[in-house]
Amino acid sequence: MIMTLIILGAYVAGIALGALAPGLGAQTADATEPALMLLVFLVGIGTALDPSAWARLRSAGPRAIALPVAVILGTLGGAALVAPLLPGMSLPDVLAVASGFGWYSLSAVMIAEARGEVMGALALMANISREVITLVFAGLMVRAFGPLAPVASAGATAMDVSLGIITIHGGREAGLVALASGFAVSLATPVFVGFFLSL
């Protein structure tokens, strides 16, 4: 939750700085793509340096495959249903935003680079909202839909920021599934965002 507040604070500070110094945007625009490449590179290093990452994925059994697939299909299906209600946004752009799966730091940068700052800001807020909703309503989700509900809601954040609250409300087994599901969804995020941005 602290990291979410830091990200939100950085975003608001960026808006304030951009409003006070409009010429700054032109100077920082060239840094966006290298920053994105560095982020993806560091994620790759982190994955390679985590020897238990693939073991966690295998240990959760069939649910480790079924749940992230359901998360991806459910997210994209829901986004496709609401796309006609969002004037001015194409279906691929709506699906690109949804494909952040809660990983706002990566998806917002990718989308801002390809579609501009407004779309990047939308991706940031949409995916932060997914994380915050999970953190606030995880207990209610477990009572209403079962221990894996907040795992699905968390998307990519199930393996890190949302893991604690998922384990508290859903139990240790849900926490194990959350690690595996979040890892798989995180791997899928740059692939799906990049694909929909290319359409």
From TrEMBL:
The chain crosses the membrane at residues 35-53, 65-88, 94-112, 132-156, 176-197. Pfam families: Lys_export (PF03956). GO terms for cellular component: plasma membrane. Keywords: Membrane, Transmembrane, Transmembrane helix. GO terms for molecular function: L-lysine efflux transmembrane transporter activity. This is Lysine exporter LysO family protein. It comes from Tistrella mobilis. The lineage of its organism: Bacteria, Pseudomonadati, Pseudomonadota, Alphaproteobacteria, Geminicoccales.
